[in-house]
């Protein structure tokens, strides 16, 4: 029996008890599973998904909408299944198609015994931006993945048949947002191929976050198309009998995917160093399961659990509800009131926990402001799974370990330790987990505008200043609490020539000119112009460092009365610093290059090329308009430099808005909160200088500072150059013991606000 979207190959037994529905990879059709029929278990029949636009349906219009695709397949399965046990198997893109079909079947009360994802990325890797996909993209995909022989691809007639379904599937994937919709409760098997260069083990591991049921991880020999190269192994991995004792979802997320592979497959395991939080899940009883299995006053366990909640922000805001519910459970268990405030985006929420002041508490609340979203971990190869929270050699690795789930863990652990002790504070202490700090429209400014008066802060502590070591790398030297942020301006560079055939290259091509201009801008250096906060910090640093040459350069820079002397001494400061990128950013305007684009077809020399970069400004130093004018003068007529403002905003309006931000006064460092921090540093880091400082980045502090609320920034743990370089980068990490010590600093700071001490 067949349906429009499904086919059961001839010759199979009519009395099977299991139906395995197979979803082909990108651009392929049912024949890709031709080697499976003779390798199936005795009680299993094979059903092949037949999408339009290929195979026997080649004359039909391809489907490029995931919902339409999954609805059609689910309808066909309901018609075909009968009473048989149902297993869905998807390869590569087919894994997503199987996943979405599974969602629809379960919603219509059709049970799915098992979902198998083979060599496929998980739904969370797709954000539905709908980027344009061209025929050239399809051609590059076919060549790059080895979908067919290059000789066949060179045949125009063969290409005419092959490329349309590939193009349709790539467009389907580009428009798919896997983060929307409920995570299904289904047994899941995620399979990676050992020699797959496109979807490696670290990617397949993330499937564990996309089921509320049990997840088993397995590996097979072969490449991306192992289901064809090694069909017996893939069939066994998908349809073989499960071990008598299988790891539960708690095991998957608690011990990490590698440890689960050890349990199931007998592989060597990486020991889990801390218990995990599970993602937003629903048990068979229908109750949410967002438990944290550990001591909530242990910052390392908390940081691991937070990292394992994938809150990547693709640019329009993160899905933070599962993490918020985990935090809600922690605080509620301690008797602390909480609130989850939704934003217009599904799953994008702010979280609040409030410990009320007691006795005669009259001061405005202290807000511990963290952000739960993290930048994505795609595009670069990590040595560890960025969302496993792995501890190795005394370091905790994971996206957000430094920015800023480690800080959040310190805030939560320190505050709950006080709650456990029955603390009485002289004001309310509020922990706020912001959902859109990295990017997105619904962050702190949106919240304060939409909910005025809901958070009446007297002071705010968020991310900011660092604790640095002496040159020996082990002795703490200086701790800083930042009292203002840099602000940045997005600039766009465009070069133009003319487009032509690649057989006729010419001098002055747009791409070459762009490279030359970028090289020139990369060599540009702004004057060394430390503002008042930077001068305070570097004065303290000169007295804190044990490196006499470094101290001498610092003093010479601070004493300089001309740009020439200050620039020369400042460059020496940067050269001698153990954290040169950090100190350079605290001394001058900087340029950071983030994107370059050109070309759309391999036989066309493009007529334009563009690049984007950010100029970051110190308050009280360079004027943004003058810097833009200087850069334009530098590049002359070889390129066009434009200011990228908000939609509908002119260049002058964007510059004036930035000037307004830069004019926001520094937070007062003569406050009880600042003094409590300085006292805490003395307790946890005896002999270390504690100073106000200028932060080198942008935070969510500006809306508070605009209301004259003091905002202070701290990363309370010691860092080194390697850690700082990996912020927003690959293999982001923090030191485990440094996190514990930093949490003690936060605890001691809060202790200074207790009335029962």
Q: Note the main sheet.
A: 8 strands, mixed
Strand content: 15-25%
Mean pLDDT: 88
What distance separates the N and C termini?
Answer: 77 Å
The DSSP helix count reads: 24
Strands, count: 26
The quaternary organization reads as: single chain
Q: Structural class, judged by helices and strands?
A: alpha/beta
Helical residues, percent: 25-40%
Unreliable residue runs: 242-289
Radius of gyration: 29 Å
Shape: globular
Describe this entry's structure for a reader.
The protein has 757 residues and is of the alpha/beta class. Helix content is 36%, strand content 20%. The protein contains 24 helices and 26 strands. Strands 10, 11, 12, 15, 16, 17, 24 and 25 form an eight-stranded mixed beta sheet that branches. Strand 10 and strand 11 (349-355) form a beta hairpin. Helix 12 packs across helix 24. The longest helix has 20 residues, at 401-420. The protein is globular, with a radius of gyration of 29 Å. Mean pLDDT is 88; it is low at 242-289.
Which key features would you list for this structure?
single chain, 757 residues, alpha/beta, 7-stranded mixed β-sheet, 24 helices, globular
Provide a concise account of the structure shown.
The protein has 757 residues and is α/β, with parallel strands linked by helices. Helices cover 36% and strands 20% of the residues. Helix 15 packs antiparallel against helix 16 (548-559) and helix 16 (548-559) runs antiparallel to helix 17.
